Every structure is written in C-alpha cells, then in structure tokens.
Amino acid sequence: MMMMMMMMMMVVVVVVVVVVVVVVVVVVVVVMICSQLANCVCFGCRNFYYITMLRDPVSRYLSEWKHVQRGATWKTALHMCDGRSPTQDELPNCYIGDDWSGVTLTEFMNCPSNLANNRQVRMLADLSLVGCYNLSSMNESQRNHILLSSAMSNLKNMAFYGLTEFQRKTQYMFERTFSLRFIAAFTQINSTRAANVDLSEPVRRRIEELNYLDVQLYEYAKDLFLQRFQFTRQKEHQEVRLKRREERRWLKEQKEQGRPWPPKHKGGGNAGGRRGGGSEKGTEGEFPTTTEDYTSQVARW
Fold first, then answer.
1. What does the DSSP assignment read for 238-282?
2. What is the pLDDT of residues 73-116, one digit of tens each?
3. I need a surface site. Which of 14, 163, 176, 192 has the fewest CB within 10 A?
4. What letter would DSSP give residue 163?
5. From start to end of 159-219, where are the E strands?
C-alpha cells in the first residue's frame, strides 16, 4: 500500500514538473514572437548593430546603371532628412516617365542630380550636417568635406563592415566579430554585369570624377579593413600560442605531481596524443585560413 502511494506521488510530481516546463516554454515562445511585432518590442532584451558592405565605386556605379537600365527605380524611396523629404527643386528627376529603362551610360552620367553619384558616402553620412539636400546651404567644397568626414566616422564606428572585393576576409572578420560561423565559405564571383562593361579610359576617369568622394571613402575603408584583419589574425595566433603554453604548463604540473601519463601504443605513440593535443588541433582548425583575397581577380576599371 505504501509503495502504491509513493508511486502515485512520484507520478503527480512528474506531471507538475512537466506542466511547469510546458508553461515556461510557452511563455518564452510568446515573448519571442511578441518581440518581432512593431508594437510589441522588448527593447531591453534586444541589441542592434549597424553593419554594411562597401564596393569598388566604379563597379558599384556601373552595377546601378545596369539595374536602372533594366527598369528599376527608386521612386518609393523617401530620402527623409530632418523629418522631411527633399523638394522637387532640391532633387529633380533625371528622367520623364515611369522609369529610366534603356538609359545609356552617357545619359546616366550626364544627370547632375543622379543619386548614383557618391551613393556610398551619402548613405553613410549624416546629411543634416550639410542641410540635407539643400545644396545652397554651403559651398560645394565645404559640403563634400563634411560629408566625407561624417561617412568615414560612421563607418569606423559601425559594429562591422565588409568589402565586396574581399569576400573571404569579410567572412572571417564577421565570424570573429560576432562569434558566429557560416556553414559554407564565401566565394568571390567577379562575373557580373558591371564586369562585362567595356570601358574606355576616359569614361572610367569620368566615373571616378563623379564618384570621387566614394573613391576616397573606399580607399580609407580598404586600408582600415586590412589593418583590422591583420590585427585580428595576429590576435588569433597569440591566443593559440597562449593556449598551447597553458597546456604545456598543465602537463608539467601533472608530471611533477607524479600523475600517470596516458598509456602508449605499442608503436610508441601516445594514445590520442597528449592531453590537450586534440584541442590544439581543434583550435588551429577553429577558424579556417582565409587569407586569400582575390585581389588579382578583381576587375580594375
């Protein structure tokens, strides 16, 4: 009789525990779903990181031209700055009609209000510093200096940025920055519509002139990116060396304390290697070597 009562009590306890677990899981799921809704965001439980990707300015410009040539538009973009969109006088259209499909490269370059010009700087900078899209608020030289400085500062302070021309290094830096791993290695694909455009030297120089702020930003970004990459690689190597040093010290302490070593195989090797040997191999393979930068494969316009 006592045994039956004890078994019944155990069953009740198990049921209660299961119910509690189910309730907890449901609550967690509800919170996660709720946090995805616009009007129900748990701001105290979320972290936001600003990240971006930059691209060679000439390649990016040509890519946008081909995109617009196929009929793409930015009509839905509000271009909000200081709480308002630009006026028609501040940002006149480059074309008449629904889109700019079929536009030639010359026509694309000849529009002075084309937002493709220096797009990367404009999208990274704080436009309110220069009066938004009001070009009469200051002279062009001062405006450009402020925009470029703002873009560089914002880029430097972002949690992460990568470069299209350095896919493997970008993957490595992203994984190290956020302690995440991609399931596959990034690949460098240079066969793009922009890469297939046959440019004359004068046209290439003209595109660089139209995007000279982006050119300066990209050179700055590339230099900083490669510095960060080298620093991160050196730090990783130091961590590996430190871990090996700690393992050797631990093995020495074990030996001094007279603790037995792992048995050796008849062939003379250690069974499974020294303690920690497997982890050393794992550490070296933890972040695959991704030093290939594909620079030689990138089309230089």
1. HHHHHHHHHHHHHHHHHHHTTPPPPPBPTTS-BTTSSTTHHHHHH
2. 988 888 999 999 999 999 999 999 999 999 999 999 999 999 99
3. 14
4. E
5. 160-163
Q: Which amino acid is at 81?
A: C
Query: 3-state SS of 17-85?
Result: HHHHHHHHHHHHHHHHHHCCECCECCHHHCCCCCEEEECCHHHHHHHHHHHHHCCCCCCCCCCCECCEC
- CB crowding 285-298: b at 16 or more within 10 Å, else e: eeeeebeebeeeeb
CA distance 140 to 80: 21
Sign of the four-CA dihedral 103, 105, 109, 110: negative
When pLDDT is averaged across residues 110-137 and rounded to a whole number, the result is: 96
SS3 (DSSP) at 113: coil
As a whole number of angstroms, the distance between CA 181 and CA 176 comes to 9
Instruction: Report how far residue 92's alpha carbon sits from residue 86's, in angstroms, rounded to the nearest whole number.
Output: 9
Per-residue pLDDT of 244-290, as tens digits, reads 989 888 988 888 887 665 555 554 444 444 434 443 333 334 433 33
Residues in the chain: 301
The lowest-confidence range among 48-52, 84-88, 293-297 is: 293-297
Helix %, strand %, coil % of the chain (to 5): 55, 5, 40
Residue bearing tokens 């991704």: 290
Query: What value does the mean pLDDT take over residues 112-127?
Result: 97
